[in-house]
């Protein structure tokens, strides 16, 4: 498989590899994929009080394109709002990395991962808001 | 050290310089370029002589009669000729064939083709060690079975089937027995005087001969007949027409002569290299050998590195020429059907690498590979969420993954 220079760069020097405490309220975690399919991505975002993503970490089990897609995504989401991050399209990732057609599913997985992380963060905070209301009563 | 280092002798081997020399003598105007079928002049006679010497060299390797050797373009053609040739010739006797799930595609696809023509095929499941037993074959044989086709050594895992015992079963039940020996010839002893095998396929390029040439052994006593697949000038006693490629056949003959003379010493050396590789991997956690460890050809190791995906592993090992059972390295996006048939789950199939060492592999090559493998596995496990979970004691089989 001949990869683009950008894929090779992210593969050789993956950005933002790591793990955050997923019980931390400011952290949203998205884990997508399945080992049986050959790729699993875990993407985590840390969101500040203003609703801006200030940090992102990933770990990915998968082929070079899957690793590059998730590495690139962590760079892109930093500094963005949750809505902006959730609106990133797989086609943008595939285009940036010049993924070959058989590897498009890796960019789809990355899009799913950020959507799942944003959803996880929002779910956590929906619960917070409800309990805050409950305390107020 | 020439990079990437070649660890894919199971895929093909470089031509031995002694073989290349012999071949080069059969090409130019001043060399032995004649058509072996030309009966009317010296050019033809000399070419025929060279081809017949090569035929004897192939026969000698497997303790057969030279008249039992039919030249082909390689093991794929040999498999096609053997299986279709028997099925078509004996179709009035029966239309049932037996093979295994982990045969080479040259056998499986040929069987599929026959199924479309109305033949029935039983596909035996190997054990988790990759071995098909004589008992399985005996149970599967029916009244209308005409042919059993079982490989000697599997091309992905290097595991050896007991074809002598399977041959006894087939002969006792009067069923023809074909063996794909592309991966065993030149690595382990084959004695067709002793083994009850009726047809056997060979390939030159797996034993330091050229690509594009192979042979089919066709037993004379008891006689077996084939319907030709290639029609034309009636070469090879009508079984395979086409002008004999003198340089290719001479190359295969010389390759057989060399392995016959050197096989035993060579396999000891190669086995030691494989052992060095395996011992060097022992300090990596969660490394598993695929297929039987004991019943395998000396030079091969098919291993799975759990929690690491095979294609990314290969990317990290760009200095090593290895192959993977991972889906991502295949056009189909399906993991290896051989590893799946052994009962490996998809993850382990995705994480597999096949190392095969050979004539030109050195200890330094193996040590270099070991250093690279350690770096790559460490790096990718550091990147792997599955490794994190394994280390945290999470049972990955209990998680409901969203398959995509």
From TrEMBL, chain A:
Protein name, entry field: Iron-sulfur cluster assembly scaffold protein IscU
One GO cellular component, as annotated: cytoplasm
InterPro entries per the UniProt record, alphabetical: ISCU, NIF_FeS_clus_asmbl_NifU_N
Task of the protein: A scaffold on which IscS assembles Fe-S clusters. It is likely that Fe-S cluster coordination is flexible as the role of this complex is to build and then hand off Fe-S clusters.
GO terms for biological process, alphabetical: iron-sulfur cluster assembly
PANTHER family assigned: IRON-SULFUR CLUSTER ASSEMBLY ENZYME NIFU HOMOLOG (PTHR10093)
Species name: SAR86 cluster bacterium
Family from the record: Belongs to the NifU family.
Domain of life, per lineage: Bacteria
Signal sequence bounds: none
Molecular function in Gene Ontology: iron ion binding; iron-sulfur cluster binding
Database matches in Pfam families: NifU_N
Occurrences of domain NIF system FeS cluster assembly NifU N-terminal (ranges): 2-126
TrEMBL record, chain B:
Residues that bear N6-(pyridoxal phosphate)lysine: 206
Annotated EC: 2.8.1.7
MF term (GO), any: cysteine desulfurase activity
GO BP field: [2Fe-2S] cluster assembly
Cofactor(s) demanded: pyridoxal 5'-phosphate
NCBIfam families: IscS, PRK14012.1
Family under the similarity heading: Belongs to the class-V pyridoxal-phosphate-dependent aminotransferase family. NifS/IscS subfamily.
Name this polypeptide is given: Cysteine desulfurase IscS
Name of the gene encoding the protein in the UniProt record: iscS
């Amino acid at each position: 498989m001949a990869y683009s220079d950008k894929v090779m760069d992210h593969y050789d020097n993956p950005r933002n590899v790591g793990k955050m405490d997923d019980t931390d309220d400011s952290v949203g975690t998205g884990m997508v994929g399945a080992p049986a399919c050959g790729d699993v991505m875990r993407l985590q975002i840390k969101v500040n009080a203003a609703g801006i993503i200030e940090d992102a970490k990933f770990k990915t089990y998968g082929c070079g394109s899957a690793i590059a897609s998730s590495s690139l995504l962590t760079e892109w989401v930093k500094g963005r709002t949750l809505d902006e991050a959730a609106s990133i399209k797989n086609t943008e990732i595939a285009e940036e990395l010049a993924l070959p057609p058989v590897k498009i599913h890796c960019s789809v997985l990355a899009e799913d991962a950020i959507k799942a992380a944003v959803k996880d963060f929002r779910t956590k905070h929906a619960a917070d808001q409800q309990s805050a209301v409950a305390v107020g009563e | 050290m020439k990079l990437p280092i070649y660890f894919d002798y199971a895929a093909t081997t470089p031509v031995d310089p002694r073989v290349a020399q012999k071949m080069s003598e059969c090409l130019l105007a001043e060399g032995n370029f004649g058509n072996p079928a030309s009966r009317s002049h010296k050019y033809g006679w000399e070419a025929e002589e060279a081809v017949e010497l090569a035929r004897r060299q192939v026969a000698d390797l497997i303790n057969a009669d030279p008249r039992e050797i039919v030249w082909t373009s390689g093991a794929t053609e040999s498999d096609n000729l053997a299986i279709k040739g028997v099925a078509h010739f004996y179709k009035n006797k029966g239309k049932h064939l037996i093979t295994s799930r982990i045969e080479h595609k040259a056998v499986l696809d040929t069987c599929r083709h026959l199924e479309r023509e109305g033949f029935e095929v039983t596909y035996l499941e190997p054990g988790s060690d990759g071995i098909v037993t004589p008992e399985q074959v005996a149970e599967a044989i029916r009244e209308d079975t005409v042919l059993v086709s079982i490989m000697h050594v599997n091309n992905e895992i290097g595991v050896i089937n007991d074809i002598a015992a399977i041959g006894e079963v087939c002969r006792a039940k009067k069923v023809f027995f074909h063996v794909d020996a592309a991966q065993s010839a030149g690595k382990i002893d084959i004695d067709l005087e002793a083994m009850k095998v009726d047809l056997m396929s060979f390939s030159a390029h797996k034993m330091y001969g050229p690509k594009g040439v192979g042979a089919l052994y066709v037993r004379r006593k008891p006689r077996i007949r084939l319907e030709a697949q290639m029609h034309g000038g009636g070469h090879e006693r009508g079984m395979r027409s086409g002008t004999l490629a003198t340089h290719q056949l001479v190359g295969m003959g010389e390759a057989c002569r060399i392995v016959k003379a050197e096989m035993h010493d060579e396999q000891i050396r190669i086995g030691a290299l494989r052992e060095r590789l395996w011992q060097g991997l022992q300090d990596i956690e969660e490394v598993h050998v695929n297929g039987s460890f004991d019943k395998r050809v000396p030079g091969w190791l098919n291993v799975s590195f759990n929690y690491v995906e095979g294609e990314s592993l290969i990317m990290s090992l760009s200095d090593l020429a290895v192959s993977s059972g991972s889906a991502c390295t295949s056009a189909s996006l399906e993991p290896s059907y051989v590893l799946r048939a052994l009962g490996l789950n998809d993850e382990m199939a995705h994480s597999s690498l096949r190392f095969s060492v050979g004539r030109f592999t050195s200890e330094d090559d193996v040590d270099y590979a070991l250093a690279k493998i350690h770096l790559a596995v460490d790096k990718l496990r550091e990147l792997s969420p599955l490794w994190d979970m394994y280390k945290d004691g999470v049972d990955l089989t209990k998680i409901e993954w969203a398959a995509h």
